[in-house]
Amino acid sequence: MNLHAVARCSLVALALVFPACAPTRVRRTTVPGSQASTFDHKSPYLKAHLRTGYVYVLDSWHLDSAGTGVTGHGSLLTPDRTVEHDGDFHLPVDSVALFETNLLQRSGGITALAVMTGVTAAVTAVCIADPKTCFGSCPTFYVRDSAGPFLHAEGFSSSIAPALEAVDIDALYRARPTGRDFHLLLRNEALETHVIRYADLLLLRRPVGGRVVQTAGGQFLQALAPRPPTRCAAAEGDCRDAVARFDASERTSLADSVDLATRESIDLEFDSVGAGDLGLIVTARQSLMSTYLLYQTFAYLGSHTSPALAALEGGGPARELVDGVGRTLGRIEVLVPDATGGWTSVGSVGETGPLAADTKVVRLPRTDAGLVRLRLRLTRGLWRIDYVALARLGQPLSALRLAPRRVEREGRPDAAALRSLVDTAAALVTLPGDAYDLSYWLPPHPEQYELFLQARGYYLEWMRREWLAEENPSKAAEVLLDPAAALRTLAPAFKRQEPELERRFWNSRYVRH
Amino acid sequence: MSVTRIGHRAGLAATLACAACAHNPAPRGWLPRPVEAQTSAYGGWIELTYREDGARRHTEGELIAVTADSVWVLTGAQGAVIPTSAIEQGKLAAYAAESGTMQTWALLGTLATISNGAFLVFTAPMWLIGGSLTVGSESRSAERKHPPLEWLGLAPYARFPQGMPEGVELRALHPKPAAGAR
Questions:
Q1: Which ipTM value was assigned to this complex?
Q2: Are A298 and A464 in contact, with CB atoms under 8 Å apart?
Q3: pLDDT in tens, A363-384
Q4: What distance in Å separates the CA atoms of residue A107 and residue B142, rounded to the nearest whole number?
Q5: Which residue of B has its CA nearest to A32?
Q6: Which among A199, A186, A218, A194 has a CA at the least distance from the CA of A136?
Q7: Which of A117, A236, A496, B151 is the least buried, fewest Cβ under 10 Å from its Cβ?
């Protein structure tokens, strides 16, 4: 049983078991015998304390109509609390020093815990029905080159609420600064509100003939003499040209028509490799399969999506699916040959999102010089691989961090936006269609530096009209509860739309006119 | 979220919940449960800190009786009558609060937030804070303290809420049996 199953079982226990055994409190009241008519008649037991220290404990009792006597069944106890007599008793109230009643009350804390249980259950229900609301999307960052703005990064994709504010670092691998004045174009292209604390550049000195890459763990390493594979073999044949350069010419494949989780392999070979620490650099982004699955889930939720999202402060046109679907689809695994003739996984890469390709390195086990054989294992139709290279890994590096020195909006300086990005206590808030030009002043010889974008913030999702269609909560639940089955069920429908997805996706981008 | 972080959060929840609990001074099993307290003819368990001959002393036992000027306590087989003027503070446990159920509830509630995905950042603190406050409040529900309560405010939880009966010797009273007595 995994943690989520444990959590849901806990929730069932909270909802069903605990309210039934809710703790109680005792409300005890004492009144003098002379005021017998005022005591609480709801008490199932009555204690009559005598001046002698004896006490009657009665379990069925009533006060007579005149209010002068109490009749009941129970025990008479001595001051030492031994039983003197059991049976039926009639007590004149004036013989009693003090009457004591006790009422059990349901603890007030139960209400608080019940409310919290309800909130947790509601959130769980939403996350079961629409796990995508538990993840998110992000702002987009472009770098202008001679061909126009090029999308380099999407920031803090899982920060869908203020409390999820996070830092995200993306390689600006194709950025080639030609002068010290470097510009990033920040856009909000979705129906989202973006809150950006900062968007700083990280600069790392590039080794001669090499690059700087980041591991999945966040460490920056020198990547010396990166070289494309000498062989790249996939199901469609030779894929070497597609992955030899980071040039937006990507190696892609089509999804399986029976099971969207079907894997494929790409075999890589690198000739005449020298000894040393090696790493495989992979630049890739997702296809629109995960986006399709997300939107289909929203469609299945239909009218239930809006209240859920509103109650939870938004959710995202996020490109990730729930954990279960994400795990089932997987990342790009890097495998090396093992001693038994099989393959062993040594790491994986692959960030969620179909927009900007991200570059990461997977450190490989040390091997002898010569031919290096590797295998990539990935879900068919899910990944677009732009670049693959083998590099010798050098020293870890520390980054120089630069904040923007100027911000422009619609061609005019925006001092307030600049202050928002520089002041750690403030944040730049953008709405759909907003675009800002961020200017950075690089150190001398900027061409010697590798650039990364470090952004921090969060975003809030807006409701989409198309999510109201095709309401079918049971199918939405299937996506989450049995993602493997859902990926088989959805395969035919996805295959019908697969050829058109790209065009429809980019047409849906929010652009202010 | 990793298993380790979840474990840490659950541990933190348990720690907070436990830290918020009132300490029950009575011997284990001595105090009646709420349902038993309806028919129990014994007093609650009281802890007293008082001064005698210039020294600070401590005693605890069954609260036998209390008036504005004296507190009768049965400590084991012995009894003590302590002037209220000498008492610095007193804490009474009237019955065994059922905070254990709530502790478990709060712990499971925190655990259940794992299924909340990223919204765990809202629901987990809600359980950690709300749960510990609720558990703490529940554990103190059976507790009565002087101060702030006046001594007579503790009288309903004495064996003799009407006051020490004439002719009854404190030393002649037997302590409540360990379990099973009314």
A1: 0.82
A2: yes
A3: 998 877 688 999 999 999 999 9
A4: 11
A5: B162
A6: A194
A7: A496
